[in-house]
Amino acid sequence: MNTVTHPSRPIVPSPPWPINLDDIPIMYEDEDEMGEAINHYWAIHLSFGCLTTFLKEQHPDLRVFANLNCHYTNGPVDSKSKSLPYFSADLMIVRPHVPCPDDLATYTIGQEGPAPLLVLEVLSDRTARERDLGEKLPLYSKLGINEYILVDPSGQFLPERTLLKRLQPGGTWKDFNDPDGGVTSELGFRVVKDEMGELSVVNAKTHKVYARPMEAQAEADARFRAENARRQAEEARLRAEEGRLQAEVAQRQAEDRATAEAEGRRQAEERIQALEEELRRLRENQK
Questions:
Q1: How far is residue 75's CA from residue 20's CA, in Å, rounded to a whole number?
Q2: Between β-strands 106-108 and 69-71, what pairing exists: parallel, antiparallel or unpaired?
Q3: What are residue 238's DSSP bridge partners?
């Protein structure tokens, strides 16, 4: 049997893979998929971008996936879609056996890697009570998913807007909230609501706030513009320096020509003087 260890709490056993238990909940999550509100999508989008950056910095062996079907047991096959049971979490953090391609279509427990370490669900009217706060709790417990973060953009279901459920020995869940209403994962990040009511991901140790995708893009654009301006200024400086050097070379060449002309005149004057001196001696000898 595999185990998942955490330094801050007891070991919680994880079941062997692939899951094939008689009493595990069966789910084909997206059979009747409907559109979601913009705040639901935005919460997922912001969290995905920030967590991707966090994991690249702190846990490069982990991956975060958004709305990816996760197959977890060998059957039964759905009568309509012919699919094996699966759930489709808004976000899940996994430790794959090998690096997963960016176009991974599905994540199968036991094939791509073990069960997710963490799942994040953004609550909505369509899924909150029946699935996210209902069916998924025993399913995630059976799968040995150690942390389950719930985000409620509207505040309709969770007074604090965020909640962390942490799996306990025996398969029960224990709820956690930080004093400011956010939650802290054992992976080292926090999910909090900022003063504008939007999700932020923060490094729990350094307190670094990770830029949201649009902020990261704006920062990247600003860096590009600054770098472009720096490069243009450097090119202008180099052109000016090149012009200065060319002018210095031209001045040196002119000075060299002037020196050569002066030397030529001096040598000519010396020759003339020598000839005049020779002529003077000849005249004196003739007298």
A1: 8
A2: parallel
A3: none
207 vs 202: CA distance, rounded Å: 6
Window from 114-118, 212-216, 266-270 with minimum mean pLDDT: 212-216
Cβ–Cβ < 8 Å for 152, 191? no
Pair 197, 217: CB distance under 8 Å: no
Q: DSSP string of 155-216?
A: SSS-TTSEEEEEE-TTS-EEEE--TTS-EE-TTSEEEEE-TTS-EEEEETTT-PBPPPHHHH
Number of H helices and E strands in the chain, helices first, is: 3, 14
Task: Output the pTM of the full model.
Answer: 0.67
* Residue 68 CB coordination number (10 Å): 22
CA distance 143 to 165: 14
pLDDT tens profile 136-149: 999 999 999 999 99
Per-residue pLDDT at 5: 39
Mean per-residue pLDDT, 5-20 = 48
- pLDDT of 134 reads 84
Q: What CA–CA distance (Å, rounded) separates 164 from 92?
A: 14
